[in-house]
Every structure is written in structure tokens, then in C-alpha cells.
């Protein structure tokens, strides 16, 4: 039996394992000691422990000892590392990806730009890494002007992807520091700290073309993906096809992409990324010489399996359901597919990572719904790795139906234990701009205030925050029953439904009933207060955007009084509950316990606290040092992202409690500052 080693982790490793198992392969995965309890490690035939995911020599040596016939690198880590691919090739193991020569030519964004220019593919001018080394920093400003590269600038890592190693810079004098930070972040993520500078387009669309080369100059392309919805250069929602790409533009971009495939004799799956401006002009950005995170949308739209196709090619076979690679084919999309990335991060707190354990996990189900994930209930989201929890992919005959399916699926996706971006994604897909396809790479940043609002009526939130409600929900989550009056209408609901009625004090007119469902952690709330809220929203017809289910129940309330609002809830700690209500997540204090206060580096507190769990990457101050407001004191690394910890005020550093390399468990106190105000 053939043996395949997956040199990756998380959801992509499970995606590869599925395809390999379908072919009867024996499958192994690499894992570090801290990641040995992951879901993939419980599912594969063998787990091969390594010191880290970037140690190419160790991985190849252990693959040889295990007798691997194939190595699949997935995405990220060493997937675009030419030295790793070459080590695999030299070990007589089939590398399921492009060749080491392909990666050398196209895996580097700098080299890829030069090859694109040679192939007459439009590009943005750049100041390359060799220029940055050769030209003194005080001469950069003139050189940028000479090359017609004007502010704002984009510092970009030459290798890797996913927004790592990227910085937007408005002032040319800030470039040296931005280059240093971007280089460090790229080195930590891809083991390649090479960066360059190019012009930053302010309002483009991000369009990418999926290609598959035969390694002899031939190849095919499977349309485009719209990847414009991004935050911090990281894709959030992707879809195929794009609403802004017609058949003519699709053909032009496909031909440009296949010109690069021919020039490089590219082998296997790859993605050409372009920026598209308002005039319909496209500019080549880079090539990802690997499988993309968002590859499922292309699979769904063109009815193909890219992982199986990769394995076919590694075995010397052109995929039998792919067109002839020696002729140009303009394939028509057969559906619309949209992917949303579910991440462990807090959009209402500057998208800071939120690693932790998943206490409750429930995926949406139904026709046209696919979830690719590397976790299950009980899994840990580790601060040492990427924040991706799952990819939610929906497919439908039309975009309108796909958007509707995505809205409903996000509302049904429940993850408790820490904060995720689910409600943020839900807010995006409810916006009119998204429904109309009016988006750009800056749309999220320009609408962040709207997107991070609670999409719930304030008076409904107040019901959930009311102390009596929290008391009774907390009691029900502990398995208890409340022996208070139950309305007659609920006495007939069946012996397995537990009901709680709350008649509040004389100073409040709130009246509600909490009912436990048969489903785990699912409840209903109803009563006069709920009916009143629903009727008010229906009659006032306010401009706020609420979920389709809320609007349906609001409409239903005009002829029915005992409307029940569904919600999910769990107790995440002794002092906190989490609630999923119409796709919006609320954190509620348990009234029986004192709230544990989390202090931030707030003005006047004197404490400088870490923003999250992670590692102290750099200490930039010393005890006794005078500092200014906004000065960067520490760099904290979490989930491969570097975050600056700044002082809230002017003062003097009196004590430092951490050192470089120290692991932070959470919002630890890093230093004390005496204010000069």
C-alpha cells in the first residue's frame, strides 16, 4: 500500500487525509508535541513527531524512515519552500505540489513579478529586496519617486501568504521600521524574511485565477475567485465566480495566467492573484504555488476535486475529468459557491486572537453546505498556530440563493468557549453592499463600525442581561428546575420540556418564559416582553439590519402572541455564560458569582497588560526609562501575528515583569508605569 505523509496540520491535513484514504493510502501526519492532541492525530494511521513544522531536514528524514511514497505540504508552513521541495525530490519521494524549480521561480513574489513582466502580464512597479539592501535608506524616497511609486506604500513578504509580513505605510520615513517588523513576521511564518515595497492601490478588487499545469508548459484554468473581503490583508469571505468578472475579462485573465504556466512549465495546482481596478484593468500580484485555503469554492463551481487531481499528477496521470492541457478552454461556472473563514478572534477588540478550548461545537447541516475543519468539541485552538477554526462553504444555483444559505448557516453555527468572528461574518452577509456584490479590499475597514455593532434590538439584549433572566438561565444550565408559576400554554408542551416563568419586580414590566429544548444547549424564550419587542420592530420598520429569522418571527407576531425565540447557551466558566441569539453572540455574567475583572493597559491604571495569550517577542524598554503616550513597549507574538503593546500615557517605567521569549497565559501584567501627568 502507498504511504502519504501530510506535512501540515488543521483542516487542510484532514482534507488531504480524506482524499488519500479514498485511494486506499496509508496516511501519516507530522505533529509537534504541543499539537499532538489535535483531531487529525486521532484519525490518521501514524503520527510522526517533529520539533516544529518548519524543520525541513527533520521532516524529510523522518519521512524516509517511515517509508513515505508521497509528501503533501498543504498550505502555509513549508508548502512554498523550494529547499523543502528539493529535499523531498532528492529523497525519491513524490512531492504533491509544484516542482522545486517552479517554487524558486514563482514562489517568490519578487521573481514572479519579473517573470510576469517578461510574459507581458501587467504588474505594479516595486522596490525589490535587492534594491533595499543596495540603496541607503535615506535615498529610498528619491528612488521610489523615480519609479513612480507613491504613498501609500505596501511592504510585502516575498514568500508565504495569508497577510503575514505585510504593512501599509503612509510616510516614507516609517519604511525602515515597517520593513523590520514585516521581515520578522515573515521569517516566523515562512522561514523567509525577504520583503519588498510596491505601490498600494486604495480601492481595488482582489481576483485570483485557479490554474493546473501539466509540468510541460500546458495547463488549464478553472475561472476566478473573488477574494476582496479582507481585514489586515487576510481573506475573510471568498466566492466563485466574481460578480465583476464577465466572460471576456475571465478569458483575458485566464490567458495571462496560462502564459505564466507556459513560461515556467508549471506543474500542479496554483493560483495567480491579481488586483482589479475600477476601470477593469488587472495587475499581477503574485503566484501561490500550492493549494489555496479557499480552493473548495472552485471545486464546487466546476465539479472537480483538486486534491485528487494533485495526487493523480504526482502518480504521473493527467486527471481524467480535466480538459486537454494543450488547448485553451473557457469553462462556464456551474453554480455559485461562497466560503466564510471561521476564526478564533475578536472583531470588537481589534481582531485580537482568542485561543482557547471549544466547549460546545455544532456545525450547520443541509444540502449545499460543506464544513472543512480541523477541530471538534473539546479541541484546543492553540496560540502557537493559525486562528482558523473552520471553513464554511455554501453552494447554490444562483448567488442570491447562496447568500441566503450562507446567512442561515452562519446563524446555525455555534461555537462556545471563546470569542469567534461568526457574528462578524453574519453581519457582513446581511449588508446591502454584499448582497449587491459592491465590495473591495478596503470595504471591511471602511465599514468596520457598522460590522461590529450588535445586530439585535437593544431591548431584546436587555432581557438577556436582566439579572432574573441570568439567574434562571444559569440554573437551567446547571440542570436545575425552577418551581415557579408556569403559564398554562406551556403545560401542554410535553413531559421533556422544562419551563421557567419569570414575573419580575414591580419596577419592571418584563415578563418572559425560558424553555429548554430537546437539543443540547438549545433554549427558547417567550412571553409578553418578547411579543412586545417583536411587534415594536414590525410596526416601527426601523432601518437596522436583523436576521431573517428575527424578521420572520416579527412578522409572525402580528397574528400570533406566544412566539418563541430560539437561542443556544452554555456556561463557559463559573462566572460567565455565552449565548448565540440570531447569529449574534452575547456574554452574560453569572449572577451568583463576582465578575473577574480584566484590566487593560488603560490610562491611569499604571499597568501595562498583554492583549492576549502568546509569547513575548521583544522587550523595547527598560526599568527607569521615560516613555511617551503611544510608545511601543513590547511586541507580543500570537498565532503567527506580531502585536504592539503601547503605553496609554506619558510616564516612567518602574517595573518590568516579563522577558523576551516568555510565554503569556492571557492578559498578564507586563510592566508598571508611573504617570507624569
TrEMBL record:
Its cofactor is biotin. Coiled coil: none annotated. One of its GO terms (molecular function) is ATP binding. PROSITE patterns: ATP_GRASP, BC, BIOTINYL_LIPOYL, CPSASE_2. Signal peptide: none annotated. CDD domains: biotinyl_domain. Residues 113-315 form the ATP-grasp domain. It comes from the Bacteria. Keywords: ATP-binding, Biotin, Ligase, Nucleotide-binding. Pfam families: Biotin_carb_C, Biotin_carb_N, Biotin_lipoyl, CPSase_L_D2. Residues 599-674 form the Lipoyl-binding domain. Residues 1-449 form the Biotin carboxylation domain. PANTHER family: CARBOXYLASE:PYRUVATE/ACETYL-COA/PROPIONYL-COA CARBOXYLASE, METHYLCROTONOYL-COA CARBOXYLASE SUBUNIT ALPHA, MITOCHONDRIAL-RELATED. This is Acetyl/propionyl/methylcrotonyl-CoA carboxylase subunit alpha. It comes from Fluviispira sanaruensis. The lineage of its organism: Bacteria, Pseudomonadati, Bdellovibrionota, Oligoflexia, Silvanigrellales.
Amino acid at each position: 500500500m502507498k504511504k502519504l505523509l501530510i506535512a501540515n496540520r488543521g483542516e487542510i491535513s484532514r482534507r488531504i487525509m480524506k482524499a488519500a484514504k479514498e485511494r486506499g493510502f496509508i496516511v501519516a501526519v507530522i505533529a509537534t508535541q504541543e499539537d499532538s492532541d489535535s483531531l487529525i492525530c486521532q484519525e490518521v494511521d501514524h503520527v510522526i513527531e517533529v520539533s516544529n513544522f518548519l524543520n525541513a531536514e527533520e521532516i524529510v528524514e523522518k519521512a524516509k524512515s517511515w517509508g513515505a511514497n508521497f509528501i503533501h505540504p498543504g498550505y502555509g508552513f513549508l508548502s512554498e519552500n523550494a529547499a523543502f521541495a528539493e529535499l523531498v525530490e532528492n529523497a525519491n519521494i513524490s512531492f504533491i505540489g509544484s516542482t522545486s524549480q517552479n517554487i524558486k521561480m514563482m514562489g517568490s513574489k519578487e521573481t514572479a513579478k519579473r517573470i510576469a513582466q517578461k510574459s507581458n502580464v501587467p504588474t505594479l512597479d516595486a522596490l525589490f529586496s535587492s534594491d533595499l539592501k543596495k540603496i541607503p535608506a535615506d535615498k529610498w524616497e528619491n528612488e521610489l519617486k523615480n519609479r513612480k511609486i507613491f504613498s501609500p506604500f505596501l511592504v510585502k513578504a516575498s514568500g508565504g501568504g495569508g497577510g503575514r509580513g505585510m504593512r501599509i505605510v503612509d510616510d516614507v520615513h516609517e519604511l525602515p521600521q515597517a520593513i523590520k517588523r514585516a521581515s520578522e513576521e515573515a521569517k516566523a511564518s515562512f522561514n523567509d524574511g525577504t520583503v519588498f515595497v510596491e505601490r498600494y492601490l486604495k480601492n481595488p478588487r482582489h481576483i485570483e485565477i485557479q490554474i493546473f499545469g501539466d509540468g510541460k508548459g500546458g495547463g488549464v484554468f478553472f475561472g476566478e475567485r473573488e477574494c476582496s473581503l479582507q481585514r489586515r490583508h487576510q481573506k475573510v469571505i471568498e466566492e466563485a465566480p466574481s460578480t465583476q468578472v464577465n466572460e471576456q475579462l475571465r478569458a483575458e485573465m485566464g490567458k495571462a495566467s496560462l502564459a505564466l504556466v507556459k513560461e515556467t512549465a508549471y506543474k500542479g495546482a496554483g493560483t495567480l492573484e491579481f488586483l482589479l481596478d475600477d476601470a477593469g484593468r488587472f495587475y499581477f500580484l503574485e503566484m501561490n504555488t500550492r493549494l489555496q485555503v479557499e480552493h473548495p469554492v472552485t471545486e464546487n463551481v466546476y465539479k472537480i476535486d483538486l486534491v485528487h487531481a494533485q495526487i493523480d499528477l504526482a502518480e504521473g496521470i493527467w486527471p481524467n475529468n480535466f480538459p486537454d492541457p494543450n488547448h485553451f478552454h473557457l469553462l462556464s461556472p456551474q453554480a455559485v459557491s461562497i466560503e466564510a473563514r471561521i476564526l478564533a478572534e475578536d472583531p470588537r477588540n481589534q481582531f485580537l486572537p482568542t485561543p482557547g478550548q471549544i466547549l460546545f461545537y455544532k456545525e450547520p447541516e443541509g444540502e449545499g453546505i460543506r464544513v472543512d475543519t480541523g477541530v471538534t468539541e473539546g479541541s484546543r485552538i492553540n496560540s502557537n498556530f493559525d486562528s482558523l477554526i473552520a471553513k464554511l462553504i455554501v453552494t447554490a444555483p444562483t448567488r442570491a440563493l447562496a447568500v441566503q444559505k450562507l446567512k442561515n448557516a452562519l446563524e446555525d453555527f455555534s461555537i462556545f468557549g471563546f470569542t469567534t468572528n461568526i457574528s462578524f461574518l453574519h453581519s457582513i452577509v446581511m449588508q446591502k453592499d454584499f448582497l449587491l456584490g459592491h465590495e473591495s479590499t478596503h470595504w471591511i475597514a471602511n465599514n468596520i463600525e457598522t460590522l461590529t455593532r450588535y445586530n439585535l434590538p437593544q431591548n431584546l439584549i436587555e432581557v438577556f442581561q436582566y439579572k432574573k433572566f441570568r439567574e434562571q438561565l444559569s440554573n437551567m444550565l446547571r440542570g436545575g428546575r425552577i418551581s415557579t408559576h408556569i403559564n398554562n400554554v406551556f403545560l401542554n408542551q410535553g413531559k421533556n420540556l422544562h419551563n421557567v416563568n419569570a414575573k419580575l419586580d414591580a419596577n419592571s414590566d418584563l415578563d418572559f418564559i425560558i424553555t429548554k429544548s430537546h437539543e443540547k444547549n438549545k433554549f427558547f424564550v417567550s412571553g409578553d416582553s418578547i411579543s412586545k419587542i417583536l411587534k415594536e420592530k414590525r410596526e416601527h420598520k426601523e432601518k437596522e439590519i436583523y436576521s431573517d429569522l428575527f424578521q420572520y418571527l416579527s412578522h409572525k407576531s402580528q397574528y400570533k402572541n406566544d412566539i418563541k425565540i430560539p437561542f443556544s447557551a452554555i456556561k463557559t466558566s463559573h462566572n460567565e455564560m455565552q449565548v448565540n441569539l440570531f447569529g449574534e453572540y452575547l456574554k452574560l455574567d453569572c449572577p451568583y458569582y463576582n465578575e473577574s475583572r480584566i484590566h487593560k493597559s488603560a490610562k491611569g491604571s499604571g499597568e501595562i497588560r498583554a492583549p492576549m495569550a502568546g509569547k513575548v517577542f521583544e522587550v523595547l524598554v527598560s526599568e527607569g526609562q521615560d516613555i511617551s503616550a503611544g510608545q511601543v513597549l513590547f511586541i507580543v507574538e500570537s498565532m503567527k501575528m506580531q502585536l504592539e503593546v503601547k503605553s496609554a500615557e506619558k510616564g516612567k517605567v518602574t517595573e518590568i515583569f516579563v522577558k523576551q521569549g516568555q510565554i503569556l497565559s492571557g492578559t498578564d501584567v507586563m510592566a508598571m508605569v508611573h504617570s507624569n501627568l
